[in-house]
Amino acid sequence: MNSVTSNTSLIFEDNLSRISLKQRVITISLLGIFSIPSIICFLLIFYYFIRLRKSLLLDRINHHIILCILIADFLIIISELPFTFHFLSLGYFQTKNLCQFWIFWNYTSEAIPLFLTMYASIERYLLIFHKRFIIKHKILFHYIPIIIVCLYTIGINAYLVLFIPCKTNHEYDLNVFVCGGACYFSDFLPNIYDTIVDVMLPPFIILFFNLLIIIRVVIRKRNVSSTVLVPNILKKNRRMILQLLAISFLSLITWMPWVVITLGQNFYDPSFAQQFIDIIIHYLPYFSSFTSPFLALIGLPEIQAKFKKFNRQHIIPLKTISPANA
User: Model's pTM, two decimal places?
Assistant: First the structure.
């Protein structure tokens, strides 16, 4: 009797879920495979940030925003991803009472890295071309904006998700990712504000300032009158520029599809690309978080040197031991 009930329950859950059992298994497998090396890389980077804190944090303010992005991405993996694993493993979310918290934490944890990357793009531009000004006013243009970005994303999502009341007949859909989403989507003004300010604006700012950096670098390289000073500036900031471009590109890959789909749903068809959202788009931020520590290493040569030293001391000697010597 229990066996029959269990089998019937599994078929029932699979039919109700928007994504098939096969798709869920593939998604869980990919998320699990990518999460393990990512967590290891995160922990090693955090360890070296603590160990080399003077050279990496106290003497170099450009690493502060990168560390904040890494912490935010790490929190997604260790605190929000388990909710997704639970949903994918069953095909539905089991606890209706936790729906509101999952929605809030999903929206907040994904928004913080996006907004931090947005400000990182602005700050990197200023650090490359107006470094003395930033260093002189680092409290106003460095520390305060980082705090504001974090507080804003937490505050706006707390207001939208937790304090805008649901309609009396509202029921969370446990068979859909994040229980079908927040209640404020049915309110015009909060929804349009969130769409424009929290979803569309950050990717466009990221794109604008990254293109601005590239254009100014190209123009300055072609400027014959500054052959000595400009190459030195670019050489000093090469890793910082490449690191920002890599992290920003990853963020754009994650969020620009949301912008396109949002426009399509508002001006073309409310169900535009819905299946694409259910199968792929919901899970892109996780892969962005998985990749971020490896991309961050581009601008962290001190940690790269530690990794290489570890490889020379531990991995290479193992390869030189032949079966005959063993």
Answer: 0.88
